[in-house]
Write a structure and sequence with these properties.
about 700 residues; alpha+beta; eight-stranded antiparallel β-sheet; 18 helices; globular; binds alpha-D-glucopyranose
Length: about 700
């Protein structure tokens, strides 16, 4: 099975590198984003002049895969095939023009690049290391300066080329009809080249174009040299890197539901495209942006929760990088900012109280939860020791700065601190003590206690444990609404908020409700008039007058919230409800014709909402591994399995990394459920259910 072929589809048009993104919706590459800047509108637009007039190059077909886009365009007897890919952030397209007619063909090919920003210079350069290739360099000033280089391999000898802007402009002025004139606007710097093309019937002409943006002109030119010296080799390397990722990083998955397999591989692809590596002082490790380049930065709760998904990659640098990056942004007072930009001094305007690069508010405290989940699967104590000090200071910061009334319950001060931006929970302002925040603080303190214990600091452990107890007690005492059978946010004067949301179910995750309270919560959850929609769980119940299935935090279903709820249900033994929620989550993301990994979804229709390819929605793959495969990480390092019955006839998960071992999990009606450790069978049972725990050697 080739995941790249499996993921091929016609409806995607984006190629993503580490710090760049190119969109292909016509001949060439239409827009390009580099880091946080919109660099060009028309990165590499390809036009044709025939008999002095602009000829339309219509797109015939396009196929996207993670490693490349193949596109075919045609203009009468001229056919253009393109292979587009990314090589270390240079966007490259290999062009082949073919005369598919019966007579000779003459045309002028024009490659144009409309670079936005104030121009500083535009000049033509040789490319050292790429003989015959040539580049146009545009130095742009867009606040922070950066340079764009745009280059070409040597065109076929028969072609004349004019890579100078002036020549091009003159050439165009001589030849073009009015339509192309419109391409020239005052605020844009047009770079380009023109080639005369003369092809006999059946004859082809091929060459390659590339564009790259970098902080300095030298780096921009340098980025083009390798792909223009050997484009085919670079394209093959891009494909090989994706193969390596799917074959060696990701546990192999097969099952009786092909749409779930598609979803699984699609979601891993999303994790990989959102990976960023800056290697600078502030962000020295790889980390995941929520979605390049919509949310390009490091976001606190996104990164922490994504680390849980990433614990299943063989190389843990990405998962650990997310947690270390989140912890590394700490303010002197202990605050962990909700957002850190890629470059210094980019956030000063939005956050005047911040440190320039990050925001001065936090986000839901999920670092403790995520750290423990990642530790359970990996057993990496060095990670615990690294993150613990920041987590402990963060906890003290909450106490000092987010508990004004000293009731051991914490409040947020800003819409973006809540993580639930426009939720009706804050329609009346921020005098709210949110229920899940406090459940998460109780977890955070428990984790601090467990980590301190493990690292051999029993006194610190006892202090954390006492604080965990204080917050847990306060949640139980003050947030439970007996009449409604619900845990609630608290408003001023500890009045219970009438806005019920799935935030309440996070108390299950923290182990706070009594069994009776848990049963009442599950009644709310599974009530079709409230939370149990066709695609649960909406972040506002259907019977709330504020419910809007399409409005962000006012109704849609969010996958990371479902993940939190599933954990709580399993903790309280609601296996069947958990299984049904997991099944419907798979259906929502994978069962509607093609896999998606959106920011949120309409809970009634299942329509995708907001941003596609969002990292933390990838927690669905954690559900595949823990609920389908059944592996349930344990802090004590033993291997416990407990697959849920999701109605699959069969499945096979191979090479799941767990504490340095390779675990295989398989099920079919005939052979039952089997677990193997490092290739040797560790246990089996005829049906799906608990197995283990086993000690691992
Ligand atoms: C939105 C969400 C927030 C999230 C961010 C990045 O602002 O409301 O919770 O962290 O996007 O995904």
């Amino acid at each position: 099975m080739d995941p790249l072929a499996r993921l091929a589809r016609p409806d995607k048009d984006t190629l993503i590198g580490n710090l760049c993104r190119g969109v292909s919706d016509g001949a060439g590459i239409s827009t390009m984003l580099w880091a946080e800047e919109l660099v060009t509108r028309e990165a590499l637009g390809i036009y044709l002049l025939r008999s002095g007039r602009l000829a339309y190059l219509g797109q015939v077909e396009q196929t996207w895969r993670p490693d490349r886009i193949e596109a075919r365009h045609s203009a009468g007897d001229l056919q253009l095939d393109e292979l587009k890919f990314v090589h270390h952030d240079a966007l490259v397209t290999e062009l082949t023009f073919r005369n598919v007619g019966s007579g000779p063909l003459e045309a002028t090919v024009i490659v144009l690049s409309d670079l936005e920003g104030r121009k500083a210079s535009a000049a033509c350069h040789d490319l050292p290391g790429a003989p015959g290739a040539c580049a146009v360099l545009a130095d742009l000033q867009t606040g922070r300066g950066f340079s764009v280089a745009f280059g070409s391999t040597r065109p076929p000898d028969a072609l004349r080329w004019a890579p100078f802007r002036k020549t091009l402009v003159r050439l165009l002025a001589e030849r073009q009809g009015p339509p192309l004139q419109a391409q020239f606007k005052q605020d844009l710097l047009n770079c380009g080249m023109a080639f005369d093309l003369a092809l006999a019937p059946g004859e082809t002409a091929s060459w390659s174009l590339a564009i790259a943006a970098r902080p300095t002109p030298q780096e921009a030119l340098h980025a083009l040299a390798t792909p223009l010296a050997g484009p085919a080799a670079c394209r093959e390397a891009a494909t090989a890197a994706w193969h390596e990722f799917f074959e060696h990083q990701v546990p192999r998955f097969a099952c009786s539901d092909p749409s779930l397999v598609d979803l699984y591989y699609y979601v891993w692809h999303v994790q990989q495209v959102n990976r960023m590596e800056l290697g600078n002082r502030r962000l020295p490790w790889p980390f995941g942006a929520p979605a390049k380049f919509k949310y390009s930065h490091l976001w606190f709760w996104d990164a922490c929760l994504q680390a849980i998904t990433l614990r299943w990659l063989r190389d843990l640098a990405y998962s650990f990088g997310n947690l270390r990056s989140a912890a590394n942004q700490q303010y002197p007072d202990g605050m962990l900012p909700h957002e850190t930009a890629l470059a210094p001094e980019t956030m000063r305007r939005n956050w005047p109280d911040g440190d320039g690069q990050s925001s001065s508010v936090t986000q839901p405290p999920v670092l403790g939860l995520a750290l423990w989940e990642v530790y359970a699967a990996t057993g990496d104590r060095a990670l615990l020791a690294d993150v613990y000090p920041a987590l402990a200071r963060y906890d003290r910061w909450f106490e000092a700065c987010r508990d004004e009334d000293g009731d051991h319950l914490f409040a947020f001060v800003h819409r973006w601190e809540t993580g639930w931006d426009n939720s009706p929970r804050w329609d009346g302002g921020f005098d709210v003590e949110p229920v899940e925040v406090n459940a998460l603080i109780a977890i955070q303190r428990q984790v601090l206690a467990d980590v301190a214990e493990l690292l051999g600091w029993p006194e610190e452990a006892a202090a954390h444990r006492a604080r965990a107890q204080e917050t847990a007690d306060a949640v139980r005492r003050l947030m439970w609404d007996g009449a409604a059978g619900m845990y609630c946010d608290l408003l001023a004067g500890h009045a219970k908020s009438p806005v019920h949301t799935p935030a309440a179910f996070c108390t299950l995750l923290a182990g706070l409700p009594t069994p009776e309270q848990a049963a009442a919560l599950v009644d709310h959850l599974t009530n079709p008039a409230r939370f149990w929609t066709r695609y649960p769980v909406p972040v506002v119940p259907q019977d709330d007058p504020e419910f809007d299935p399409n409005d962000y935090w006012r109704g849609p279903t969010w996958i990371h919230i479902n993940w939190l709820i599933v954990q709580g249900l399993l903790r309280y033994g609601y296996r069947d409800v958990a299984a049904e929620l997991v099944r419907r989550t798979f259906q929502l993301m994978g069962g509607q014709g093609r896999p998606t990994c959106n920011e949120c979804y309409n809970p009634l229709t299942g329509e995708e909402a907001r941003t596609p390819d969002l990292s933390w929605s990838g927690l669905v793959n954690d559900l595949v591994i823990t609920c389908v495969g059944g592996i349930r990480p344990r802090a004590d390092g033993r291997l416990a399995c407990d697959p849920l019955d999701l109605g699959l006839e069969s499945f096979h998960l191979q090479g799941v990394p767990y504490r340095g071992h390779r675990i295989d999990l398989a099920y079919d009606r005939a052979g039952g459920y089997r677990v193997a450790v490092d290739g040797r069978e560790a246990g089996r049972r005829p049906d799906l259910g608990p197995l283990g725990p086993f000690a691992l050697g």
